[in-house]
TrEMBL record:
Xref: Gene3D superfamilies: 3.40.190.290, Winged helix-like DNA-binding domain superfamily/Winged helix DNA-binding domain (1.10.10.10)
CDD domains per the UniProt record, alphabetical: PBP2_LTTR_like_4 (cd08440)
Lineage: Bacteria, Pseudomonadati, Pseudomonadota, Alphaproteobacteria, Hyphomicrobiales
UniProt record similarity statement: Belongs to the LysR transcriptional regulatory family.
Gene Ontology MF terms: DNA binding; DNA-binding transcription factor activity
HTH lysR-type domain mapped to chain residues: 3-60
Transmembrane segments: none
UniProt cross-references to InterPro entries, sorted A to Z: HTH-type_LysR_regulators (IPR050950), LysR_HTH_N (IPR000847), LysR_subst-bd (IPR005119), WH-like_DNA-bd_sf (IPR036388), WH_DNA-bd_sf (IPR036390)
Protein name: LysR family transcriptional regulator
């Protein structure tokens, strides 16, 4: 049995109006088409639905029993159509993604705030993880994409750079520090510093770049989390060595970033997606918002 929605709409229309002619007019089809649809439905169901005469159309007992079920099926189909349309236009749905802790703290609150104003009914599931866990968590979970810093290529992933952050000395907004345009790594070596631990990706990149010039970083403190470095800097314990993009100004209004030079080192914040996977409309809308916000911020 292959009952169609067109047949059900015709059946419920005839049932309510007690007229094939009026039902056909409401549905925008011919009377003969409506009669044929009822005949097909009766044949497929194996029961007579209407007793027809030249003057009237009367529902049978089978029609009375089938009417409410048909109404429910049409309502479910309409709900499905609306839901699918909302999903297609990013008016509903869910966005699940992974973000490195630094990006989640410094960059994504701006993106989330913008996205919430334009897509208030979309559910957000952001999983903030350590930078080294970014790719493994994207592979192992139902997350559609990831945002964070990676180096080089990653197997079966596409990587798009969203913004770049200059490695900087981040310190308190004192008169002397604020007046500087930049610091060299040699100048930085004479000051108390807070750096990420050697096993972190940021530190590996720094050590490699400095090692190529015969230099070595010997920080006063080493930490694992970016927010820890910033909180320590806010207390005056030293200059944090981080990308300028990782400084959330709203959270640390007393801190400013000055570029580190000789050498200048940049670190990307990228979008990672599995190759061959299409993002849901909701995820596509979120990624578009992230691109726009981060482009504005870098500008």
């Amino acid at each position: 049995m292959n009952v169609t929605l067109r047949q059900l709409r015709t059946f419920t229309g005839v049932y309510r109006t007690r007229s094939i002619t009026r039902a056909a007019r409401e549905l925008g089809i011919t009377q003969s088409a409506a009669s044929l649809l009822i005949q097909q439905l009766e044949s497929q169901l194996g029961v007579k639905l209407f007793d027809r005469s030249t003057r009237s159309v009367q529902p049978t007992l089978a029609a009375h029993e089938a009417f409410h079920a048909a109404e429910r099926m049409l309502s479910d189909a309409l709900s499905l159509s609306r839901r699918t349309r909302d999903l297609a236009h990013a008016r509903a749905g869910r966005v699940a993604f992974v973000a490195s802790a630094g990006a989640a703290s410094a960059l994504l609150p701006l993106v989330l705030a913008r996205f919430r104003t334009t897509h208030p009914d979309i559910e957000i599931d952001m999983r903030d993880v350590a930078a080294d866990d970014l790719v493994p968590r994207l592979i192992a979970t139902d997350a559609e994409f990831a945002i964070g810093s990676v180096e080089g290529e990653v197997a079966e992933m596409t990587i798009e750079t969203l913004t770049r952050g200059r490695l900087s000395a981040i310190g308190r907004r004192t008169t002397e520090f604020a007046s500087r345009r930049s610091l060299t790594w040699d100048e930085l070596a004479q000051l108390p510093t807070i750096a990420m631990r050697r096993e972190t990706r940021i530190r590996m990149q720094i050590d490699q770049a400095l090692g190529a010039q015969g230099k070595r970083l010997s920080p006063t403190y080493e930490v694992t989390l970016i927010n820890t470095a910033l909180a320590m800097t806010a207390q005056g314990l030293g200059l944090a060595i981080l990308p300028a993009t990782m400084l959330p100004a709203d959270q640390f209004p007393t801190l400013i970033a000055k570029p580190l030079v000789r050498p200048a080192i940049t670190r990307p914040v990228s979008l990672l997606q599995r190759q061959g996977r299409t993002l849901s409309p909701a995820a596509q809308a979120f990624v578009a918002t992230a691109r726009a916000v981060l482009t504005e911020r870098s500008g």
